[in-house]
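A further point concerns the way the authors explain their paired sequence and structure data. The central task, working out the structure tokens from the amino acid sequence alone, is never made concrete. I therefore recommend that a typical entry be quoted early in the introduction. An entry of this sort, consisting of the sequence and the corresponding backbone structure tokens, reads as follows:
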Amino acid sequence: MESFFDLFGPSTTGAVSDSDTDTRNGNGEEEDGTFEDLGGHSHHRMQQHASCSSSPSEDADCTELILKGIDFNRGFLPPEPQLGNIEYKLKLINPSKQRFEHLVTQMKWRLREGNGEAIYEIGVSDSGHLHGLSDADMSVSLHTLNQMARKLDASTSVLRRKSLPDHRSVVEVLVRKIPDDQHNIEVRVAVLGAADAGKSTLLGVLTQGEFDNGRGRARLNMFRHMHEIQTGRTSCISHETLGFDAQGSVINYKYNEMMTAEEISDRSTKLVTFMDLAGHRRYLKTTVQALSGYCPHHALIVISAGNISTMTREHLAIVHALDISFSIIVTKTDLAPPEPVLFELKSLLTSIGYRKIPYLISNEDDVLNANAHQSVEQIVPIFCVSNVTGAGLDLLIQYLYVLSPGISNAEKERLEQEAIEFQIDEIFRVAEVGLVAGGLLCKGVLTENSQVKVGPLQDGSFFSVVVQTIHRNKAPCRVVRAGQSASLSFSTNEPMPALRSGMVILPDYESNEIACGTLFFQAQVSVLFHATRIYKGFQTTVHIGSIRQTAIIEGIMGAGETGIGTNQTASVLFRFLRHPEYVRPGMRILFREGTSKGIGKVTQVFPLNKTLPVAP
């Protein structure tokens, strides 16, 4: 059976002592003798895997092996990462009081790095060598780990155990602590795929706890409009939640007959928020706007067993351009064998444009392996599931349970200390409430009864309002923090101006120089693809956060009359065609027109209350 511990194998040469490293990190206290250090050779294995992803055409056999599941049956992990939420411990036996406090502090740091989640490998040296522990030593070490977790009000759960020779074993433990300012740990997951791939059906099965009948019954609860029910196609952004308790049990609408979205949130220590996005090309702009505006932590690309459509390739390209980690779900395996699609995926993901390592998930070890190494080694987990028979769904659910938000607590705290910036993505009206704005809080902390500014209006100015109520995950709350999505209602003494998607909410104390819209902005862009070349006057749809508007290229610096083509980079001056938007330097930009695509970052803005630039 392939496992996390089989990913990297040992070398047969070279051995040095790693006792100094283990003592420095708490692994070697009261340990007898020295151990072989094959960390450098583990790193050599990492380089071998990297070569598989960087030169797929030269080493197809290696890629084929990875696609089917790595089966080296070796006893090594990569060296312990200095950063991140993974910690190796050789043993935790009767530490002194001072040592125990140091271990607790170390656990607290790992939890902060993982935004409330950390993974401990017990019986593993810092070099990655699997020494293992006897049953008695492992029992004492796990007891010490539980004591450390209780000191921080955290919980522990054993993810898996690997048996070694001489009655020794290695155990992987998930430590989870809900941050003090949160009710649960939330992960935002975007679900994409072509029309008829089974996205809404998959989410219906996951969140409702009932298999599909083969005729689309499970997807009905996902639709928001009558025309979606009639056509079977999603046309707007739909939000659904899936919860997990401390033991990893699923909490969804099947938990009990009276379960509501608010109760799912209250009972869950981890909450996965799905965004069901449209798959038809007609609604592609809405899909791209959701990916750009809501900044999901992860994306699920749903593909129907059969073939990879053009729309799916488009979604993959956009997710890759936005640098969002993703996994692939092959559905309808009860109707067609998945092998042809898997072969296509292998060729696509290992191509020069992606350089990813496809990893077929076939057991629980594969799930944990893929989750631990997805960001570092560019692994793309692939799940084969059936919404009718339920095949493969248990592995997907376990993957969602261990999936990390991918942002450290230090970065989260830094964003919370900045001035608020709430990007409005959706506007709707609620009876007896009035105008409601939904979107993502990018920076700061927003509370009820806060005095804020919303805009920009047509003249670039902002309008003062008061945040009356806040809702998250279909439940009322009093505060929303950076990185969280929410819906807001407002109160004002004057008539409320017309709001639109793409507006932002800023602090009321922000000066007019900062809280001002702009028509012109400059960005350093790279053209991902264009059939010919892009010249001055080119019109394109620009996505910046929740902004989606047509813009005209007024100038390309240094390009002269030649313009820019595929894989070329230049500083470009854009002008919004319809109305001003709030843009600041450093924001990511994605522009597309037909098959033409480009990405970049905003470098300079020209507010309406300042002198406009002169196009080159």
Notes: The CA atoms of residues 528 and 598 lie 5 Å apart. The longest helix spans residues 97-113.
